[in-house]
Every structure is written in C-alpha cells, then in structure tokens.
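Notebook entry, structure prediction.
Reason for the run: the old model in the group folder had no record of what sequence produced it. Starting over properly, with the input documented here first.
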Amino acid sequence: MTIYQHRDDRGYAVYTLAYYLEGQRRRPTFASFADAKAEADFVLDRLNQGESAVLTLTTTDRLAYLRAREVLDKHGVPLDVAASQFAHALTLLNGSTTLTDAVTGYLKMRPASIKTATVQQVVDELLVARKADGSSPRHIDDLDSRLNRFAEAFQCPMSGVTASDIHDFLLSLKLKPRTCNNFRTAISNLFSFARLKNYVPRDHQPLEQVPELKEPSKPVPILTRKELLVLLEHVTEEFLPYMVIGAFAGLRQSELARLNWTHIGPKYIKVPPAAHRVKSTRLVAITPNLKRWLSTCRKVEGKVVPFSNVSNQITQLFKKAGLKSKHNSLRHSFGSYRVAVAQDPKAVSFEMGNSPKMVMECYREVVTPEEGRAWFRIMPGAAKNILALKPQCEAAQPESAASHQ
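New structure, fully documented this time:
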C-alpha cells in the first residue's frame, strides 16, 4: 500500500491511498494524511481477517456495518443471523408494536429468574408446603400418591412437561374418568405451585389445554320414603341422631362425626369447619320434622355420634333392615328432596356446603315436589308407651294417617 501526496485541480494538497483488491486497483483520496493512514490500517486489518467484501462498501455503509458488528460481537451473533431474526420478528408483530415493547412484555410474563427443578423436586416441595400450611392429612396423602406417580412418569425439568404429555399420562392410567380427573386436579395444583416458585413461567398453564375426561352420568343413590321408614324402625337409640340429622339436614359423615350437642340450637345446626379447613361455620336450618326427631333423643352435651367407625354402624343397620346399602344415601336423599321442595338450588347449596353447580347437576329434578314434601313430613310416633330406644315412626301408622301429619 502506498500513500501519495499531490494537489487536486483547485491546488489543495490531497492524499491518495493506492492498493489492489481482487485484481482491481483502488485509489481513494483523503484531505489529510491521518485519514489516508487510518483507511490503510483498516483495509489491511479487513484483509488479514478475510473480509475483503467489506472494503467494497461505501463509507456510510461501512460505518453502519462496523457499528452493527461492534454491538453484535458482544453477544456472539453474526450480522446476517441478527438481520434475519429481526425481520422475522417484525413480520410476526405486523406493526402492532415495536420489537423492544414486545420483548419487554414477554419478560414480564416469563421472568429471567426461572429456576430449574425436576418434577420430583417440585412434588417434594409442594408436599412440605402443604404440611406447613395446615392442609388436612387426607389431602396431603391424596397429593402424595397421585403426584409421585406423575413424577415417576416425568423424570425431567418441570418446565419441560407439556399439555400433550399430561393428556397422554392421564389416558395411560386406564382408570375411571372420575379418578383420572382427580389426577388432573392434583397436577393442576402442582403447576400452580411451580408458577408461584418460578419453576415455570407465569403463563405456562398446560392444564388449560387438557380437557377433563367425560364422566358417565349416574343417578345419585337416594332412599325412598319407605326405605327410610324401615331404617328408622330398626335404628338404635345411640345411632338415631346420625340418621335423622343426615336425612333431614344433609350433613356429611365427617361433619356429623365432629358435631357436639352444643352445636345444635332450637332453629339451626352450626356446622363447625374441620381442623384442617379454613372455611367458616355454616348454619343449617332445622326442619319441623327434624326438630321433632331430635326431641326424642337430644342430650345436653357430648358427641352427637358416639361411634369411632360410623361405616360399620351403617352397614349393620342396612343389613338388619334387610335393605341394600347405598353409599352416602342420607346426604344424597336430603339434597334431592330439599331441592324438590325449596326449588332454590343456591339456598340448598349453602345448607349442604356445596357449589350451586354441584347441586344443580346432582339433585335437580331427581324427585317430584310431592315426594319432597312427603320426605320432610316423616315424624316420630306420638304414642307415650313407645320406648325412646326404638321410637315409633310412620311405618307403624296407616298411610292415610301419616299423610295428614
């Protein structure tokens, strides 16, 4: 490379840099020696790095190229790759916003602080958290059995589990739809916890794309009026409160188990929440016939149901009465007959501690209003010579007389 000093047509001193590039002679001219020397150094540097194509750019384009390279070299991204990705991003945005604004919004939803953890690690942390927050042992055991089975199937980072993976897992269980849906609920709890702990992005909600399995419609197992009368004929004095409160107030078996006589007032039963639940106490109205039944067996204090294993008592009673046992039939019967009489699923849902949707799906139009009124007219016998141990009920009376009570 040679730098020549000479004068231009107007008599000014100029400096020409002369060199050959790809067989062609180049002669750029500069106003000062320093500029000519800088260009010579740049050309030599580009040639040494094998970037002879850069030297064919105009001065303006070359400066733009150099600035772009300076920025991209910090990230190790080639200029052509950056240009391709930028153009593709603009196409996707379609003028709706700038690329910077789009990335800023994305980072708000997917923070850079996402931590890596396997499915098993997240399951273990969730179980520890549930024990610490006072969840019931039954709920913890359910999560333990279901989620550990899920973790065995996915020995990978939590963020790597997709909606398709979850759907395939549920189908592979080959269990009843209701059981598979219970697994789905447990997995949903796991992902909620993972989002809380930044193990997955906040917008990573694969369960939204996994539909619940369709559960076959089954009629709820309820008792007929005659079946209840037969059961009340054979029930013992100690177990009578359980039967009438279950049939005419609809309390759950677990709620009856923790009920004390002090919870039962003249008009309402105050159902206390379980020790591991945060739901508030609810009031259940005492129907006129239930009030009559309770008057035959009420105690001042103590447990309403003095049995540690209620299921055994129910099984024995049905067997003694010569009836086929029906699971949770007292509560189901109350819900069905109560909705038929009240015609207000929302009010009944509050009494039962269920959602209005559950009441509508399970108990609406199961029995007629006439059958509902007959259910809540079942009264204990009024004869004074009947021992409290075995209270007389409508089954011992003519049907015509019972219908007028």
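Summary: Residues 382-405 have pLDDT under 50 and may be disordered.
The old model has been moved to the deprecated folder.
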